[in-house]
Write a structure and sequence with these properties.
- This protein has about 425 residues and is of the alpha/beta class.
- It has helices at about 10-25, 30-35, 85-100, 125-135, 155-170, 195-210, 230-235, 260-270, 285-290, 325-335, 345, 350-365, 370-395, 400-415, and strands at about 40-50, 55-65, 75-80, 110-115, 145-150, 220, 240-245, 250-255, 280, 295, 315-320, 340.
- Among the domains are: about 40-175, Rossmann fold, CATH 3.40.50; about 195-345, NAD(P)-binding Rossmann-like Domain (Rossmann fold), CATH 3.40.50.
- The strands form 2 sheets. A 7-stranded mixed β-sheet has the order 9-8-7-6-10-11-12, with helices on both faces.
- Helix 13 (about 370-395) crosses helix 14 (about 400-415).
- The chain is globular.
- It starts with 11 loop residues before the first helix and ends with a helix.
């Protein structure tokens, strides 16, 4: 999603590196370890042809980047978006490393993507693109080495095509090569709502931390997709008043509150939330700057920057997206006493349940949704409490505390494993 607030777009990888540097400085990290963790371990760029419906051939560019393998196999999503470039993928891979470490998962970080607009592709063209891209990156991915998952503009169906393509190439079914698959072929109960559920758990913890009752709390959510839609429903169920939502076409606002389930049905019928009866249309910038209690950016990076951070009026920001707030904006928000629950903590529910799915696939033994949700709650609460303790001990904001905790864990693994040969 692009918005007026992100007109001045920063390089995402530079943002990720600056966030890392802040944590590394406070940890007094050894220069050698700093150099290793400040950069990505492997980067694969592929240019591949796809047969289109009209018989023509079109060339696409894609990426798979592994940032770290020190704590285990690489883990990270695949996104299809016109704005995908190598630095975006590097940043997302680095954030995945810290995200897995902060919640204690035995994974390193990776990310992948294809520069394309999937809305311009037919279902057959999307399948052709996915299968060819999977073949191109198959030299890196595998159930013991690098496990992709859905991300922006990718889905359970796309993961099914990826799993099938990889399986056909090795000659037998390998469900654990990807997560976020349909349940019928090894997917996990609770995976579709996991990121939104994890954000809701983090929101409840943050609200308690500032003494804010959720009953009646005004919520604005930017992005009504795989993260924002479930988050809206969970917070609505907690008694929050969801006053604003947005998608790629803009936002809607109603002071008396919006019913997320009704809006989901409207979006299924029309393709967008715009035009929902009784709601006022607003811009993305207006949503960011609404007078509300909780703001949840759940779209893309660089939404809250030095240009608009001073006008944000929420008491709590919960980052459902990766990298929505720049370091300069973080300083402005901290000075204004706005609590920011950082992406590597707030949206870790998705990768946590992806881990559950991977474990279930490897064991060929599956859990019910109640068990998955209970395990997710335990991990998210434990991680939030650990980050909050780190913030109190070092008198830093939650983002710096989360990065310090994550970087220290990855650095410890690096030291213990040593340098080969």
């Amino acid at each position: 999603m692009t918005s007026p607030s992100s007109a001045h777009t920063e390089n995402s990888f530079h943002v990720a590196q600056r966030q890392f540097d802040i944590a590394a400085d406070r940890l007094r990290l050894d220069d050698g370890i700093r150099d290793i963790l400040r950069n990505c371990r492997r980067e694969l760029t592929v240019n591949f042809p796809v047969r289109m419906d009209d018989g023509s051939t079109r060339l696409f560019q894609g990426y798979r980047v592994q940032h770290s393998l020190h704590r285990g196999p690489a883990k990270g999503g695949i996104r299809y978006h016109p704005g995908v470039d190598i630095d975006d993928v590097r940043a997302l891979a680095m954030w995945m490393t810290w995200k897995c470490a902060v919640v204690g998962l035995p994974f390193g970080g990776a990310k992948g993507g294809v520069t394309c607009n999937p809305r311009d592709l037919s279902l057959r063209e999307l399948e052709n693109l996915t299968r060819r891209f999977t073949s191109e990156i198959s030299i890196l991915i595998g159930p013991d080495s690098d496990i992709p998952a859905p991300d922006v503009n990718t889905s359970a169906q796309i993961m099914a095509w990826m799993m099938d393509t990889y399986s056909m190439n090795v000659g037998h079914s390998v469900p654990a090569v990807v997560t976020g698959k349909p349940i019928e072929i090894g997917g996990s109960e609770g995976r579709a709502e996991a990121t939104g559920r994890g954000c809701a758990i983090a929101t409840r913890k943050a609200a308690r931390a500032v003494g804010m009752p959720l009953e009646g709390a005004r919520v604005a959510i930017q992005g009504f997709g795989n993260v924002g839609a479930p988050l809206a429903q969970f917070l609505h169920g907690d008694g929050c008043r969801v006053v604003a939502l947005s998608d790629s076409r803009g936002g809607i606002y109603r002071e008396s509150g919006l019913d997320p389930r009704a809006i989901s049905r409207f979006k299924e019928e029309t393709g967008s939330i715009i035009g929902f009866p009784g709601a006022e249309r607003i811009t993305h910038r207006e949503l960011d700057e609404l007078d509300c209690d909780i703001l949840a950016p759940c779209a893309l990076a660089n939404e809250i920057t030095r240009e608009n951070a001073a006008r944000v009026r929420a008491r709590i920001i919960v980052e459902g997206a990766n990298g929505p707030t720049t370091p300069e904006a973080d300083r402005i928000l901290a000075d204004r006493k706005i609590l920011v629950v950082p992406d590597i903590l707030a949206n870790a529910g998705g990768v946590t349940v992806s881990y559950f799915e991977w474990v279930q696939d490897l064991q060929a033994f599956f859990w019910d949704e109640a068990e998955i949700n209970a395990r997710l709650e335990t991990i998210m609460v434990r991680a939030y409490d650990a980050v909050a303790r780190e913030a109190d001990i070092h008198a830093v904001d939650l983002r710096t505390a989360a990065h310090m905790l994550a970087v220290s864990r990855v650095a410890a693994a690096l030291r213990l494993r040593g340098i080969f040969p």
